[in-house]
Design a protein that fits this description.
single chain; about 290 residues; alpha/beta; 10 helices
Length: about 290
């Protein structure tokens, strides 16, 4: 199949591109400089020339604090960009795989969210991503909306200063005697490689719709850091961050664990427990570091 990956130079997009190539698909990797998804003309001209079978949209404005300050830019990328890709996918009879987020929920449920639970975003980022979902659903084409959570991968994450949470924790452990992490938010840390593998599986079926796609289980950020340090053999002292340690004015869901109910229903859930995913990620990172020496 002919696959276009939008945002292919990003943390998720790079793994998605590699997994589709590994599946022997013809992959077109589009970075930020190749297409302006907020422009329907830009999307239409480029994609009409390629005529893909599947379009994977991993592009997003996902710096939560910056989205709050720049809502116009957030909606241009996350909502209008999704609309334009869905429109062109429909016109070309291509399948769209669109990445969304756990932040479409408010975190008040207190137990894993299902695909059928009503969304209620708390911030601009969540609202812009939900608007993107609605645009995709209303375009009339064939689509998979893939909601995921707390991603980390081998490629640098620009929205987080080039470091994902795992890399940041390991860096701080080398620089400090103590690391503080919040324990007030429950998430599911999810490796980008597992999301990428899941997208390849979905692209081979026609069970279109909205899917939750995260690692299994859930934990607080503190518990995530605890497992990172345990697997890495770090002796750094880890403590719970106090209310004034990391101030933010942007509300975030306190509980955003997603249940892969839809994937289980079609027997395509390929995700492992988040601890297994972390172990695999760290093993691969050590292997890659050894090769570069």
């Amino acid at each position: 199949m002919k696959i276009v990956v939008v945002g292919a130079d990003g943390q998720l997009g790079s793994d998605v591109s590699e997994e589709f190539a590994r599946a022997c698909d013809q992959v077109y990797r589009l970075g930020h400089g190749d297409v302006e998804i907020a422009s329907l003309d830009s999307v239409s001209q480029l994609f009409s020339a390629i005529r893909p079978d599947v379009i994977v949209n991993t592009a997003a404005f996902h710096h939560v604090d910056l989205c709050e300050k720049e809502p116009t830019s957030a909606f241009a990328t996350n909502a209008l960009g999704a609309r334009n890709l869905a429109t062109v996918a429909h016109d070309l009879d291509a399948v769209l795989i669109h990445v969304s987020t756990d932040y479409v929920f408010d975190g008040m449920k207190g137990e894993p969210y299902h695909e059928s639970d009503p969304p209620r975003p708390l911030n601009v980022y969540g609202n812009s991503k939900l608007a993107g979902e609605y645009f995709v659903q209303s375009a009339g084409g064939r689509y998979f909306i893939v909601r995921t959570s707390a991603l980390y991968g081998k490629r640098p994450c620009r929205a987080k200063g080039g470091l994902n949470f795992v890399q940041l924790m390991l860096k701080l452990a080398k620089e400090r005697s103590e690391v503080k992490v919040v324990d007030s938010e429950v998430i599911t840390p999810t490796p980008t490689i597992e999301v990428a593998r899941q997208m390849v599986k979905l692209s081979r079926c026609d069970a279109f719709g909205v899917y939750h796609a995260t690692a299994e289980g859930g934990c607080t950020w503190y518990e995530f850091a605890q497992e990172i340090f345990a697997l890495a053999g770090s002796k750094v002292r880890l403590s719970v961050a106090g209310p004034g340690d990391f101030l933010t004015k942007v509300p975030r869901p306190k509980y955003s664990v997603l249940e892969n109910r839809g994937l289980n229903a079609i027997q395509l859930n390929g995700f492992t427990h988040w601890k297994n995913g972390l172990s695999e990620y760290l093993c691969l990172a050590r292997s890659e570091a050894g090769k570069s020496v």
